[in-house]
């Protein structure tokens, strides 16, 4: 059973070699490895914290962007509403001006028509008067001629 149970000397020398290697490794290898692992862990934690900060900054930027978009939409709607109000106001003013211009043109044309009617009526009256004068002259001439003929005949006979 020598193979299954180690001798006491073997255990002693293995323990001494293990302790020497443990001391050597702990003094020379484990400190740099631990320092490297700690530095790496610190770097990873810093990176995670930076990523969280960046994520929060991105959220803030998105929130600000959304607020700006909402404000610009509100401003856009206000501007559009103001433009529609101005458009309606300008249309009303233009309509009023057009109505005033049309009314003044209608009044002027009515005055012109009335003046032309009066002038035409006066001219018609003058024509009638002239025609009646001419007609009365002719009638008078005929009557006068008849009267003269009658007188002449009366005188002669």
TrEMBL record:
Coiled-coil residues: 44-71
Transmembrane segments: 12-30
Organism superkingdom: Bacteria
GO cellular component labels: endomembrane system; plasma membrane; proton-transporting ATP synthase complex
Keywords: ATP synthesis, Cell membrane, CF(0), Coiled coil, Hydrogen ion transport, Ion transport, Membrane, Transmembrane, Transmembrane helix, Transport
Keyword tRNA-binding: no
InterPro entries, A to Z: ATP_synth_b/b'su_bac/chlpt (IPR002146), ATP_synth_F0_bsu_bac (IPR005864), ATP_synthase_B_chain (IPR050059)
Gene Ontology MF term list: proton-transporting ATP synthase activity, rotational mechanism; proton-transporting ATPase activity, rotational mechanism
Location relative to the cell: Cell membrane; Endomembrane system
Lipid bilayer topology: Single-pass membrane protein
NCBIfam families hit by this protein: ATP_synt_b (TIGR01144)
Function: Component of the F(0) channel, it forms part of the peripheral stalk, linking F(1) to F(0). The b'-subunit is a diverged and duplicated form of b found in plants and photosynthetic bacteria.
Annotated family: Belongs to the ATPase B chain family.
PANTHER family (alphabetical): ATP SYNTHASE SUBUNIT B, ATP SYNTHASE SUBUNIT B', CHLOROPLASTIC
Subunit structure: F-type ATPases have 2 components, F(1) - the catalytic core - and F(0) - the membrane proton channel. F(1) has five subunits: alpha(3), beta(3), gamma(1), delta(1), epsilon(1). F(0) has four main subunits: a(1), b(2) and c(10-14). The alpha and beta chains form an alternating ring which encloses part of the gamma chain. F(1) is attached to F(0) by a central stalk formed by the gamma and epsilon chains, while a peripheral stalk is formed by the delta and b chains.
UniProt-listed HAMAP family: ATP_synth_b_bprime (MF_01398)
Name of the featured protein: ATP synthase subunit b
